């Protein structure tokens, strides 16, 4: 990954001297490391567009004609299972009025009590759960990777079942669909104290993406191979009256991750050849990306409420043409394309170059959170794992269709090409509002029902950008300081970066904030990550 570059302050590198983190039971330093589950690809449909070893996803321009079954029996035992996960949709209708909910319960063979937490409330709710009575924990909990929860690793180690005996190495063969989760997802989830405590939600290589209104950007002069000057000119030209080329929400820092990657800055952490860890904040290219965004803001290219808009409100403004772009994870392409039909043609932007150097794109954590199980008797854990194995069925199976689209002729009908087409009921009863997909899911593929042209475009885009993705080197590693102070330290830097871009603070204020971040725990995090990195290589 791109890790070179001078730092903002001296000394520029965050050194890898001893921090004593090996004494923390959650770290992997000095521990015997449990082998990752033995990967065994599960049979599925043959893609129309092939994957690559670098991480380009398999693409399906049509829906498989013959679905297979990946589970031979009902996995549940008729008991009640309490579940909790994040959601990015609206709360579902209750089980008694929700046929999608009932269909999932019937297929799994259990009664589901589901607590759905909106993303905006997730941290607060999880803090309450983590501090509560261990006996009141849900049986299955989705730990969302979008936040660093204080003492998350300690909570998981104390309260969640150690799944190593059930999943490590060849033991996973009892759960074939879980065995089909690629090793890169387990690695980016990471071990805690050398053990496996969760099941990862596999995700593609591209992460935060600048989604653009292709027509608006093309009309404003967008071209492949553009430079940062070209980008600035396009977004300025694409902004007129009450239409703004650049949109952002309160949690995206003006789309900072995308611009930092285009400047080839580290994504949070980079690792040097000698194992030393460097923070993005200390890299001059990251600082330059903040200055670049401040200029874009000064030019009026951003929506004026970019620091306060919610993600749903920003999506609405994107669809109605008020903003011509927004930053979102690559995995959000399905609602972006589906919601845009008849309104605009969306597209993921290619990175611009800076000072003659081609830009990079954000590499995602290959685990979009992970699922943990409340401690229980062996038979109970095995049953819960069978439920998750069902939910992890691959694309092209009957189980995948049920958990993603519901019941035929109830939640969907067949299009001319055989692909599921949501009914009116399916638009409100689905796995966005009843998000079982955040408990377990099979390997991700590129598929958009009835939109083969879009699938080809996304596959072609991945072929161009996957080789230049910039990965956060801390993925899958433990840092005691990060779990205790990471959220607070990052929030302070986020506030400063937002203030600089918005014109309320200067780059000198940014430099002072970096110095405070380093002395307040940033340097210790670098040391701890370096120790972890050396331990698991």
Keyword list:
537 residues; alpha/beta; D-Maltodextrin-Binding Protein, domain 2; 5-stranded mixed β-sheet; 35% helix; disordered N terminus
**Into which percent range does the helicity of residues fall?**
25-40%
Distance between the termini: 16 Å
CATH architecture of the largest domain: 3-Layer(aba) Sandwich
CATH homologous superfamily designation of the largest domain: Periplasmic binding protein-like II
Number of domains: 2
Care to count the β-strands?
A: 16
Instruction: State which percent range the strand residues make up.
Output: 5-15%
Mean pLDDT score, rounded? 92
What's the assembly state of these chains? single chain
Biggest sheet strand order reads 3-2-4-12-5
Shape: globular
Largest sheet: 5 strands, mixed
Give structural notes.
The structure is a single chain. The chain is of the alpha/beta class. The chain has two domains: 69-204 and 366-445, Periplasmic binding protein-like II (D-Maltodextrin-Binding Protein, domain 2, 3-Layer(aba) Sandwich); 208-362 and 469-536, Periplasmic binding protein-like II (D-Maltodextrin-Binding Protein, domain 2), CATH 3.40.190. 35% of the residues lie in helices and 12% in strands. The protein has helices spanning 99-108, 122-131, 152-159, 164-167, 176-179, 183-189, 214-219, 228-237, 256-262, 284-298, 311-319, 333-340, 378-391, 398-405, 452-465, 480-502, 507-536, and strands spanning 59-60, 80-87, 111-118, 140-143, 199-202, 208-213, 269-271, 277-279, 325-329, 346-348, 361-362, 367-373, 412-414, 420-422, 446-447, 469-470. It has a five-stranded mixed sheet with strand order 3-2-4-12-5. A three-stranded antiparallel sheet has the order 9-6-10. A two-stranded parallel ribbon has the order 1-15. β7 (269-271) and β8 (277-279) form a beta hairpin. α10 (284-298) packs parallel to α16 (480-502). The radius of gyration is 23 Å and the shape is globular. Mean pLDDT is 92; it is low at 1-23.
